[in-house]
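Collaboration report, partner site 2.

Our partner group contributed sequences for two proteins of shared interest, and the home lab folded both. The records are reproduced in the order in which they were received, starting with the first partner submission.
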Amino acid sequence: LTFLAQATTLARQRCLARLRARLPTGALIKLKGVWSVEGLLAALDSGNHSVFLNLHKACGEGGQKPLEPRVGMVASAGGIVLSEHGNPEDDRPFQGMPGVVFGEVDNLAAAYARLAAEPAARRRALGRTTRDMFLERFEPAAVLRRAGVFDLVDALLRNKSRAQRAKQRDAQGAPCVDAPAARPGGGNATERQQAPHARDGDTTAPLEATALLPRGLIAAACLVSFAAGAFAAVA
């Protein structure tokens, strides 16, 4: 059972002592200097590390416990991670991944014993399944879509377009509601052109966020911002 972080807080030191007392002698080891997926892959390839431990800075205490980025790093590298429970909204995206196990500190030793009893090939298979599920579930565009980012940007662009049209009407002294003259064929040319896009009485084709802002660019910016803040919080 490999602990990646530093035991810099008294709370973590106490939790590690409780776990060590419940584990076989020498089962709990510390691995320093691993801060990237590449480093985790090297640790996994060495054959000496397959199950990793995550403890919060405020381990065993109440209050908010944000999930450390190392949980996602281990999952994306194909490892198995045992973690103390954190905030429910942080733990929820990992539900169903066989290689991510949450529990109270005193129950993690039993979870490790069950994994240690499995053949090494079985643990590697669990890690691969976890990696595949993580990469699919946390694919940048999927994350942003679930968060409603694209819908929000689309709505903002539609509102901006309406405001621009209203400003143009005011500048031209036109009435608030345009009424283009009818033409043969039913309706008018403007209505026939815009009808496929009509929504909720708005006959103007909305500007789509994806047409103006590349999704890859949005995803990259969000992920860079997240990574910068997240890794700064890791001890």
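Second partner submission, folded after the first:
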Amino acid sequence: TDPGGIPDAWKDSAEALARTSTERKRRTGAPRFCSKELKYKPDRAHYCSALGRNVLKMDHYCPWLSNCVGYYNHKFFLQFLIYTVAACAFATVWIVATLRTGFFPAGCTVMMAAGSALSFVLTAILGPFLTWHIWLLGRNMTTIEFCEQWGRSEGVEESLYDVGVFANFCSVFGWNPLGWILPFGAPLGDGLSFPRRCPAATTAATAAATAASAAGGSQRPARLAEAD
């Protein structure tokens, strides 16, 4: 599934961008511009070298899926992890219980034991990975946004896009919880702008960024993401 890309309309002037985007370059405070696609970047969009283009609300590139996880396929990525962990956990329990209560030829026993071991390993690896991504979703934070904050002296701060756990989940899975487990549907919004936890603070930060850009300043606006 395509993760979503920047529309061609975002090749226009930075003035129009300033009304919808708040993230700015760290050093200059100027709007984020991609020199490869020649487009201005919406909030949370980043360039993926594997795909050769920018991805809306980019989370990470997954080599196992040979695709980037972004705005339009984040739900399906999480569902893939949920389905896989659930299936592997069920297979481990079922095979072990079957081996304990039944008698099978040696070849079948070996194959079933190997299958249970493999499913157990997959559960042990993907289970914590899924838990971590659910934790990120609960804070409305992408992997890139987490890594940008990782290692800072102040630690990982709350995301500007954290609007509450339920609303965070709805932003990816949709408003109806009954459809969260079903592999269809679209996320809320357009992937170009996102609700924020502190609108007043965001507006002030945007004004500061615009002023810094106009003055050619180099000070980084508070709590704005680095332009990559």
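Feedback sent to the partner group on the second submission included the following. The chain is about 45% helix and 5% strand. The helical segments are 14-18, 74-101, 106-138, 143-149, 165-173, 199-215.
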